[in-house]
């Protein structure tokens, strides 16, 4: 490892620690509203960072984030009645990762639009299947979560998941695994020829992404006290994650983090008062960003920066 | 199943299937020809429906007379959108895969934009009006509202016209050439810069006509588009991307399958059934069931 690589590693890890520590002090002095804002930020930091970990590097455009979030939420809602909090959240992650590994090994040979459409269809299939199952078997539509942990417990859990997602990204970028993922993004056939076990790498990457989304789902859904398939499998969760990642720069590390914070603050403040205007603006922003800034906001800085961080020719997926 | 029930289910399925086919034809032009997977297709259908509904309730214009108006308005909108977004996208994308992925994201943006703008303008309420709603017997003891039969007739006529247009005219030859090989088409002198906006506009125009027809039969809301987009996606996947005959047949078939499926299971499984069919086809026959290669 060269000295500049060690420097960037130290800088990235230091920034992450500093941000996480600052966010961890919030419950001590912030209001309820501030904490719930920060919770939303942490949720999207975790979702967007983990999305970029796999989709940003390999350029697989996955719209299945909502599916994994929903699986985690349902696993959490069912488990929390009987199990302690420290098991509930990992359980959500494991459930989502297991589904992702299963689905991934069946669909990851498809590329491009096929994959995007398929993951979207999968989310909708799961949503409708869970709805039908709840109607037929349990006779209800949603679930009431009676035993929810304290506000601060949820906040620290989601913050830890977000920090872990960014931390995992930092580590993976510098590992053989990360290089293999990037190799698949450049040219999958070439990577396979050079000896990368592309199939296994892709399934593993997809499962890691799903694990974070599932953990976030399990941890945040208890805050809502009532969940139903329409809210936890809401495709909008997936769209917003992709939007944040693309605007921030799917190939960069800090772009998605910054974009997640900005978007969550905007969403939480505007969505209540002007929901349609917010969504309209979001749509327009997505179009403008794809047209004029395909590498994302995070890519602007790197153009002048170190050679190792230059955006790839194709930019975001 | 008695013959009467079967005939009724078949007829119901064909009427719904006709709508599916009509919606799918427009999407198929855009994706099969230009690799633009326009997931906002249903939103433009919704615009056509609201245009017709507003004109009929406020000015008393006949919905049938609104059909060409909706087509022209949406086609013009299509030219505008193509000029503002997809033209630049095609010029700046390094290859077709990147263009396709970025085009999909732009289409998602359009979906948010149009759907929520419509909600801002018209509100989220259900709307509707009565037009040609007397029922007409079609034989075998089965009767349908006249507007549904008009819908089926127009859908079949438009599909036939489109297929004939593509098969026999020089324009159609150019479009088919573009479907087979964009680079080859350019090499033999087909002006893609003119043909692309034209076909995108044609696709949106067809969505407008479908919306106009649907507003006669069903109540409309700003959120009505998305289910039609998904159904259209299923139909063009079944029929094979770029195949118009396949889309027509797959649309009618999906309508009939849904009618029978819902009769034998329950309506709450309708969505599960169509998504399951969709994913199964994508996994095992990603080129569609009716493609000839």
Describe this structure in words.
The complex is a heterodimer of chains A (317) and B (293). With 317 residues, chain A is mostly helical. Chain A has 15 helices and 2 strands. A two-stranded antiparallel sheet of chain A has the order 1-2. In chain B, 77% of the residues lie in helices and 2% in strands. Chain B has 11 helices and 2 strands, in the order ααααββααααααα. Chain B has a two-stranded antiparallel sheet with strand order 1-2. In chain B, strand 1 and strand 2 (143-145) form a beta hairpin. In chain B, helix 5 crosses helix 6. The longest helix of chain B is centred in the N-terminal third of the chain and has 32 residues, at 3-34. The radius of gyration of chain B is 19 Å and the shape is globular.
Low-confidence stretches of chain A: 302-317
Sheet of most strands of chain B:
2 strands, antiparallel
The main β sheet of chain A shows up as:
2 strands, antiparallel
Average of pLDDT of chain A: 84
Question: What is the number of beta strands of chain B?
Answer: 2
Strand order of the largest sheet of chain A: 1-2
Whole-angstrom Rg of chain B: 19 Å
Overall number of strands of chain A: 2
- The overall pLDDT average of chain B reads 83
* Percentage of residues in helical conformation of chain B: over 70%
- Describe the global form of chain A: globular
Look at the helices and sheets of chain B and give the structural class: mainly alpha
Distance between the termini of chain A: 29 Å
How big a fraction of the residues of chain B is strand? under 5%
Assembly type of the chains comes to: heterodimer
């Amino acid at each position: 490892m060269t000295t500049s690589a060690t420097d960037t590693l130290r800088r990235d890890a230091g920034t992450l620690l500093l941000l996480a520590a600052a966010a961890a002090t919030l419950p001590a002095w912030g209001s309820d509203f501030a904490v719930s804002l920060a919770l939303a930020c942490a949720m999207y930091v975790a979702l967007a960072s983990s999305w970029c970990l796999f989709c940003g590097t390999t350029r697989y455009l996955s719209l299945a984030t909502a599916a994994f979030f929903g699986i985690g939420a349902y696993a959490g809602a069912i488990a929390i009645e009987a199990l302690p909090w420290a098991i509930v959240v990992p359980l959500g992650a494991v459930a989502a990762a297991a589904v992702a590994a299963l689905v991934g090994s069946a669909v990851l040979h498809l590329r491009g639009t096929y994959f995007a459409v398929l993951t979207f269809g999968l989310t909708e299939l799961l949503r409708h299947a869970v709805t039908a199952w709840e109607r037929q078997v349990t006779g209800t539509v949603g679930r009431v979560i009676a035993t929810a942990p304290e506000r601060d417990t949820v906040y620290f859990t989601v913050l830890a998941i977000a920090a872990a997602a960014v931390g995992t990204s930092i580590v993976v970028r510098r590992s053989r695994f990360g290089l293999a993922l990037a190799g698949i993004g450049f040219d999958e056939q070439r990577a396979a020829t050079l000896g990368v076990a592309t199939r296994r790498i892709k399934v593993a990457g997809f499962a890691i992404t799903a694990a974070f989304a599932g953990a976030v789902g399990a941890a945040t859904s208890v805050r809502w006290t009532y969940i139903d398939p329409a809210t936890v499998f809401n495709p909008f969760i997936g769209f917003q994650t992709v939007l944040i990642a693309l605007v921030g720069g799917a190939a960069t590390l800090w772009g998605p983090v910054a974009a997640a914070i900005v978007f969550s603050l905007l969403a939480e403040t505007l969505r209540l008062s002007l929901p349609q205007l917010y969504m309209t603006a979001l749509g327009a922003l997505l179009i403008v960003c794809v047209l004029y800034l395909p590498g994302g906001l995070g890519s602007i800085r790197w153009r002048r920066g170190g050679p190792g961080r230059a955006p790839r020719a194709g930019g975001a997926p | 199943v008695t013959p009467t029930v079967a005939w009724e289910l078949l007829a119901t399925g064909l009427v719904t299937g006709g709508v599916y086919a009509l919606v799918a034809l427009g999407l198929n032009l855009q994706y099969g020809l230009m690799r633009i997977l326009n997931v906002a297709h249903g939103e433009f259908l919704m615009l056509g429906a609201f245009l017709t509904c507003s004109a009929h309730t406020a000015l008393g214009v006949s919905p049938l007379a609104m059909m060409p108006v909706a087509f022209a308005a949406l086609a013009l909108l299509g030219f505008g959108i193509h000029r503002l977004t997809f033209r630049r996208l095609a010029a700046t994308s390094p290859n077709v895969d990147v263009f396709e992925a970025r085009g999909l994201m732009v289409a998602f943006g359009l979906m948010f934009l149009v759907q929520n703008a419509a909600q801002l303008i018209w509100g989220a309420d259900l709307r509707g009006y009565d037009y040609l709603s007397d029922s007409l017997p079609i034989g075998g003891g089965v009767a349908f509202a006249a507007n549904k039969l008009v819908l089926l007739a127009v859908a079949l006529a438009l599909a036939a016209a489109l297929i004939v247009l593509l098969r026999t005219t020089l324009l159609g030859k150019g479009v088919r050439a573009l479907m087979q090989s964009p680079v080859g088409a350019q090499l033999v002198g087909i002006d893609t810069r003119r043909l692309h906006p034209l076909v995108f506009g044609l696709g949106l125009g067809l969505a407008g006509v479908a919306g106009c027809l649907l507003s006669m039969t069903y109540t409309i809301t700003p959120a009505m588009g998305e289910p039609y987009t998904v159904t259209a996606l299923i139909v063009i996947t079944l029929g094979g991307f770029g195949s118009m005959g396949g889309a027509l047949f797959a649309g009618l078939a999906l309508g009939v399958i849904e009618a029978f499926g819902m009769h034998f299971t329950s309506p709450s499984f309708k969505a599960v059934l169509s998504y399951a069919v969709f994913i199964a086809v994508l996994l095992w026959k990603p080129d569609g069931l009716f493609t000839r290669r």
